[in-house]
Amino acid sequence: MVEELDRFRRRKSEHPAESVLERSAFAILLVLSDGRARTLRELADELDLEQSTVNRQVNAAITLGYLERFDVEGSMSRLIRPTKSGRAAFAHDGMLRVSRLKQVFADLDPGTPEVLLRELRAFNEAYDRTLRAEQRGARSRADG
């Protein structure tokens, strides 16, 4: 089981050769794809990375023209959003990933994408419950 989970984890860094974006730029643009600009801290939190790491990644994406920082009146923090070029690159690479997943799902034997999704969701929910229980236990030990 550990071997299969590790194989699944490694899939995150595999991207089609025709990809335009580096993995980190794609991840940032994925977070920003909901249309809401973010602070560096918000991006770091959502990506579960150190702020200094995300800062380097954002700066690299800005240099390549995929992201921009902008000021907001009344705020000390600058916000980050995709540029037109960043949105286009994200759409391009997103379609490459969709195409790959369609091929994977077509070859999924035995099984179906629906069953995989249901089981993956059940796994993630069970994992979240386990983490919450561990956190409650750690807090009660610290308080006790």
What does this structure look like?
With 144 residues, the chain is mainly alpha-helical. It folds into two domains: 88 residues, Orthogonal Bundle (Arc Repressor Mutant, subunit A), CATH 1.10.10; 37 residues. Helices cover 65% and strands 6% of the residues. The protein contains six helices and two strands. It has a two-stranded antiparallel ribbon. β1 and β2 form a beta hairpin. α3 crosses α4. It starts with a helix and ends with a helix. The model has no long low-confidence stretch (mean pLDDT 93).
Q: What's the CATH superfamily of the largest domain, by name?
A: Winged helix-like DNA-binding domain superfamily/Winged helix DNA-binding domain
Radius of gyration: 19 Å
Total number of distinct structural domains: 2
- Give the CA-based shape: flat
The CATH topology of the largest domain: Arc Repressor Mutant, subunit A
Overall structural class, as computed from helix and strand content, comes to: mainly alpha
Q: What pattern of helices and strands is seen along the backbone? A: HHHHEEHH
CATH architecture of the largest domain: Orthogonal Bundle
CATH class of the largest domain: Mainly Alpha
Instruction: Give the biggest beta sheet.
Output: 2 strands, antiparallel
What do the pLDDT scores average to? 93
Helix content: 55-70%
Which assembly state applies to the chains in this document?
A: single chain
N-to-C terminal Cα separation, in Å?
Answer: 36 Å
Number of helices: 6
How do the strands of the widest beta sheet line up side by side?
1-2
**Content of β-strand:** 5-15%
Number of strands: 2
**Sequence stretches where pLDDT stays below 50 over 5 or more residues:** none
